[in-house]
Amino acid sequence: MFKAGFIKRAASLLLAAITVLSFPVAAAASTSSASPYTGKTYTHATAFDGYNRYDGVDVSSHNGTVSWSKVKADGIDFAVIRAGFTGYTKKRHSINTDPLASSNISGASSAGLSVGVYWYSQALTQAEARAEANKVLEILNGAKLDLPVFFDYEFAGVSDGRLDSAWSEGTITKSQMTANARAFCQVIEAAGYEAGIYASKSFLTTQLDGAGLAKSYKVWLAHYTTKTDYTGGYYMWQYSSSGDVNGISGNADCNFMYLPKGSEIGKVYEVIGLNVNSRGDNGTDLTLSWNAVSGAVKYEIYTVNGSSETLKGTSTSNKFTFTDLTPATKYSFRVKAYNASRLIAKNNAYSAYTAPAGVSGLQASVSNGAAKISWNTMTCSGYSLEWATDPAFSANKDSVDLTGSASNSYTLNLDNYATYYFRIRAWQNSGTTKIYGNYSGSLSVTYAPPEPNGFSLSAYTDTSAAVDWNDIDGVQGYRVYTVSGDSQTLAGTTADSNFTLTDLAPATEYKMRVEAYAGSLSSSAEYAVCTAPREVEGFSARIAENGAAQLSWNAVSCSGYIVEWATDSDFTQNTGSAELDASATSYTMDFEGADEYFVRIRAYKDYSAGTVYGNDSAYADLSVLPFAPSGFRVYGRGDGGTDLYLSWNAAKGADVYRVYILNGEEQEYKGSTAESRFIFTDLDPAAAYSVLVIAENEYGTASAQTAVCTAPAAVTGLTAAAGGNTITANWNGTD
């Protein structure tokens, strides 16, 4: 490749983006074929039987201006362009840009050729080789290539050349030159390009470890013959430097490229499709797969650390499982594909993380509607906590990712009452992807509804009791029971935080139990309630002759009575009351002005949680009730003792008086009068009577009794006889 003479470095390079193009598949390689560019027949290695063969050229500024469209039309598939070169002077390490590199790269690409580049090297050290590689990267300036960046290592052919003389003088060795080649390729690969080695047959055997380099990089063999006997690995063969290619003035370097069927020129031939199929065993296992390489019979799988490769194993399929990796660790992997002992493809290092180890120490507890989950910290990027309401983690599943290996707890506010199952796994960041480790074992905690509380007896009657309690969010409803000893009876269910017990006995204390439930979970609390006494019946009032109000009623089951009075019917003005025990059936309001009040009564019942009151009776308006009669006086008797004249003081408020003769429990109605007097006309003479006088108006009555006696009947049969100074009288006796 090297042409004598120095070339001025171009001041600047503007490289057009190179699009990867597909090319027609060439005829399958056979044992021999004729080259239209040399007119000779070439015998191909049997290792390439069945491969596709492509024709290519390599050029530099020594070839002058190239008509790339003519080159393409002449059947050329690819071109390798010299990016630059190192001068062979011994005085200094002189690195130079090929002045036509930019135009050749863009021209070849625009014409539809697949393009790669090479650097003509005279490096004596790894540092010089790396400097040359960095110069190539500067020239490329990020341009996309279809083929590798080749390290062209050869003697200049002059005795005082820097590489020639170093070899002849023994100041550089095969080992050093091989290391130089690797140093160049490592810089190229680190920049994302594929690297390759160009060298002659003799160079690959004498000056370089060609076999070793072929395991890592694609080899471009230079051997000007019709049949190469080089047995090392290669995929391109520069078979002539004197080809005749239309579009290139003078002699042209001609090359064969061999690719397995199914692969295309114009694409970097590498192991592709690398993917992590699975990770496991707490981060020590990782299964790597890739697209099968046509013609490959074996794959070697490596971990890569900088320039160092460690063989981890081999596989005859496009899959391999590592079993001894460190959890939560980033690894670089390389897969090399071989046809027999020849490297035919490899990948740039593929990076992936192993999964983190399993998380230990998982604990959980529930308090105040929240679950607190904790665990032991470990090496990772974060944790994924998952929960569900079934042990299979399929019902109501949710999760949260917590960033940072130091996270060791999480508080989850629980929305629904259920048994919650928790498990956790660690994850490791890999770019924008999270690599998850194995789940820990699961554990469960139960979040049951809290016990109902805040009970209050909101309403009651003598046969019912309405109870309220604090609403509990999230429950389906409440079951309400009446409890007696060790047994309970379902009274009903409700979705609201209140319930009314009905069909109860008056003035009776009951124990109720309220059970809040959500699914199969529940909690309960008991509360004592009591029905009211019945409304007091038979309540009546009378005004005594002195103005005192005499109240009476029928007894009911209760703890006592409240008699209440006021000067208005709403019982808001000048109110007063008296509390009486359960034995009372009467009460006298004997204070001044009692007759001017409204009065009512109700019973109450004391029980363990308080006091309940019966309904108020209808009120009595004392101001409209008549007073009881008073001041009874017999103001006359007559008609042989049958008549009796009785009067009394006019009773306040009375419209009429009804008069009765009492005989034990019997009452004999004698008549009524609007005046405060009454004349009996049918009494027995000389008889004692008990008289009941009831003062009455439309609002009520008031009564009083008095005892009277009729006059005897007139004496009959009276006779008298005088004798001396004596008169003797006789009459008929009376009963």
Automatic annotation (TrEMBL):
Q: Which residues form the Fibronectin type-III domain?
A: 270-357, 451-535, 628-713
**What SMART domains does this protein map onto?**
FN3
Q: Which domain of life is it from?
A: Bacteria
Q: In the record, which residues are listed under signal peptide?
A: 1-27
- Keywords, ordered alphabetically: Signal
Q: Name one GO biological process term.
A: cell wall macromolecule catabolic process
Q: Which GO terms describe its molecular function?
A: lysozyme activity
Q: Decide whether keyword Signal is in the record.
A: yes
Asked if the keyword Signal belongs to this entry, the reply reads yes
Q: Which PANTHER family match?
A: LYSOZYME
Q: Which family does it belong to?
A: Belongs to the glycosyl hydrolase 25 family.
Q: What is this protein called?
A: Fibronectin type III domain-containing protein
